[in-house]
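User: Hello, can you help with two protein structures?

Assistant: Certainly.
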Amino acid sequence: MRPVLVSVSIQGEMEMKTPRLLWILGCLTIALLGLVACVAPEMPDAAPEIVEIEYWQYNFEPRVLAMDRLIEMFEAENPNIKVVHNADVPYPEYRDKIAASVPAGVGPDVATLFYGWQTVWLDAEYLVPLPEDAFPAALIDDEFSPLVQASFVDGTLYTIPTAVRTLAFFYNKDLMAEAGLDPESPPATLDELASQAAACTVRADNGDYEVQGFVVDLAAQDHHWFREVLVRQFGGEPFSADGQSVTWNSEAGQQAWDYLLKFKTELETGDRDLFDGSTQAFLAGRVCFHVDGSFRLGSIAANAPDLNFGVAELPSHNGVQSTFGSYWTHGITQKGASDPARLEAVVKFLQFVTSDEAGTIWVNMVGELPARLQAGSDPELLADPKLGAFAAGLAYAQATFFVNESDQRQALIDAYDMVVLAGEESNAALDIAAETVQGILDDHYGQ
């Protein structure tokens, strides 16, 4: 009987333990389900925040297209930065638009300006210094054209360019041939320019110009040609060594001025009021010789692709070779520097558009020379039949420090008009212009 009793006892004990075991297992299951429910599902990485910056330049088609290309490349490398490109403003309205927007804290974060405007823009507090850690002075000294030194003010860098440009001598080969001149031998000296311009000039019986040999146009590039080239070639200097005194009305400057004037007053080789100025006249194939910048290559390619022309270095005189160098440059506005994220994006953009790669794209699309020395010293560039003359000029180019480029240019335009329209003596007109510009310099330097 004992075995039976034992068996019944064991079975009863098992039956008593089974509900407890099930209860424990149930509790464990509930606990595990709770733990699973408490574990947060893995979330995908948040999309990076897009920083939008605004870039402005005036409407000049070759530069607009080149910048569009650079912006496309930049945004591909920096998908978190969106660049709004505003290039709808015509040149005559550009500075007014800047003046209306930047002080109000709207408009561009980065703006392109002519280097000769920089002093005026700084006085108006449009620009902030470029961050020194991103654009150290040693980098500019070692890797950029010496012309870019004009972007420093009292040792502080305010702007930086993609490209620089020089002046050179454009000539229409077809018009030279029609005049019996060798289209492969453009004028190499000022004397040759005067004689060949006269030979190219064709007038109808009523006196109207059919072909203009050379058009003096101080509203275009000829004010630079006079100041930094002709004055030096006749033995003078345009300014004192410290840049604070006008000297382009010296005896040498007067000789240079008279040389310039004689194309209108004596040789009668052209009229700036025809064809909307000398530049448009050259593009239309109505002017034989023309002084212009490397940027003109882009507009010729776009607007006068069939023009049969060549480019040479500017004519020399007294053994002196000279040219004027300048550039359009980029600066950061107060708005662009107002937010750390925006400023970081702006700096990245400026570093990209002033790189060697950007300079190479710029020269191919616009015709302006890379501001960086490495890209600008490309042997193919120096050997190029159109760009080579501009590249060669970088070795001896002179850049004017402008307090107010527009007003300083206008003084010479007014002096020219005094002579050709009002009959003023050439030396008196030049002295008046010099006095006007000296007043501008004195106001700036506080004399």
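That covers the first. Now for the second protein you mentioned:
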Amino acid sequence: MEKSKTGGVIGVTLVDVWAEPVEKERVTQAWLGSTAKILNRSQGWCQILLPEQGNYPGWVREAVLCEDAAVPDEQERVVVVIPKVYSDGLHLVMGTVLPMERQQSERVILTLPGGKKATLPKAVVQPWQGLAKEAIGKEEQEKIPLQAVRHALRLPRIPYLWGGMTVEGIDCSGLMYLSYWLCGVALPRDAADQFAQLQPIEEAEVQRGDLLFFGSPDDGVTHVGMISSLEGPGHFVHASSRLGGVVRTNRDDPFYQERLLGYRRVIVPTAV
């Protein structure tokens, strides 16, 4: 079958996305089944946009892309919610979203890019309603930030990796993205874009699940974390290159206090 000139899906467990058509500067990663818009092809490389990461741009090897098979809006999808899963020779990582064909006792039958089927234990996935066109109820909306905190806190000591999106390595904005993605919410991929596009709030309004950003007037936004606790001075969870990976830090830590730029809230539309 001739490859689509304009669209495809990631056909491998995980792919590094590079700034240029050379494996030098990783800018993000994409999971199996992620949609890719193809802008250009050159010597075995594809320049792409990742719609699920806010049309994030980069380059991938052409060989990692499969034909873009349309999935009906009404078809149920599930997301992998444990760090890694191996089943039937298949390796998937947390955050991977795939269409579910049917349930079978304690297992689910999934459709992979290219049309093959795979069977996973039901316990390793949960229904995923992300990128849905309909707004959700207010009660469900209020649960999402707390769910995101729980997801982030399940990933302690994961090593820091620039552009990383998995338990093998993750960066600061990638941790925020993954934690909310598991709840069906797609954030901007970069910390600077998260700061620019999410709702500003005052420090007195801060709740668990809100994001706090760090940097300087000269450098702009350079780091992001998530409020995980309001007790005492409060804590935030973040992926830190300085501290070696995913950790919890006191909000009153002097190093971060002097670099604090502000707070933002993730707003999910609610049904009227």
